[in-house]
Write a structure and sequence with these properties.
TIM Barrel; alpha/beta; 8 helices; about 35% helix; binds zinc ion; about 270 residues; 9 strands
Length: about 270
């Protein structure tokens, strides 16, 4: 299907530890799927910067994406992005990276919550208080939004992939309403975007992150900017769920989605 409205704002190349394909190969697939654009947002986990040699992968990612952008000019909008994990572990390092590389788009994420050593994928959620955990998770993301270093907050309910999807805990969002509202209001006040991440559709949870009721609530609170990303780690998932997410976002009252060029928000009709 050829649909020039579709832009996938969250993808990973082989310059991410868990990514498989090169930026050039990803762009070929994005063109074949009829996407208007993709943002390649490779990982940079600030708390593991030295240990996992991110200085090198971030460098390679930036230049390979710039090469792909030139090669696909006129065919595909190639946005050079970065997904920063754990900003709060070294804010100065984040600033240095963003000064060094002129990105189009920066995602703010938390994969290893502060005070913990495990990735949110590996935490044993049946051994902790999930409500306390999610309050802390939303509070950390609120601080990331307030730092004003990213453009969009990524997959804000990501732990739910395991809490609901794997551990089958019947999570009551009413019990974390205050911390979630603080996060949504921080996103709005700081002029950031809320990401709708479609990777949950391909996993046990079967829901977008965040799910529809939270996107609707963001709108009711005054939310303006939404980015949509597949969080693909292989070419097979590029663009996955983007059309569905656009329909969901529209049902929530939005008539535009947002992409970023040179860190500037550009809104297009859904
Ligand atoms: Zn992520
Ligand atoms: Zn990602």
């Amino acid at each position: 299907m050829y649909n020039k409205r579709l832009i996938d704002m969250h993808t990973h190349s082989d310059n991410s530890p868990d990514g498989v394909h090169s930026p050039m190969y990803m762009c070929e697939h994005a063109v074949a799927r009829g996407l208007r654009g993709i943002a390649i947002t490779d990982h940079c986990e600030i708390d593991k910067f030295i240990e996992h040699k991110y200085a090198s992968t971030v460098f390679h990612s930036f230049f390979e994406c710039a090469k792909a952008r030139n090669a696909f000019e006129g065919q595909l909008l190639v946005l050079i992005g970065l997904e920063i994990g754990q900003h709060l572990s070294n804010v100065d390092l984040c600033k240095k990276l963003l000064d060094k590389y002129p990105y189009d788009f920066v995602l703010g994420s938390v994969h290893t919550p502060r005070g913990m050593t495990q990735d949110i994928k590996e935490i044993e959620y049946d051994k902790l208080d999930v409500y306390e955990f999610m309050n802390n998770y939303f509070d950390e993301l609120t601080e990331v939004a307030n730092l004003d270093l990213c453009d969009a907050l990524a997959h804000i309910t990501c732990p739910m992939r395991r809490i609901q999807g794997k551990y089958h805990i019947d999570f009551d969002y009413g019990r974390v309403q205050e911390s979630l509202d603080r996060l949504l209001l921080a996103i709005i006040k700081s002029g950031k975007a809320l990401e709708v991440n479609t990777s949950g559709l391909r996993q046990d949870i079967g829901l977008m992150m965040p799910e529809e009721k939270i996107v609707r609530h963001y709108r009711e609170l005054g939310g303006k900017y939404i980015t949509i990303g597949s969080d693909s780690h292989t070419v097979h998932d590029i663009g996955a769920g983007i059309e569905e997410a656009m329909k969901m976002v529209k049902r929530c009252g939005f008539d535009k989605i947002t992409f970023y060029v040179s860190r500037q928000a550009i809104q297009i009709d859904i």
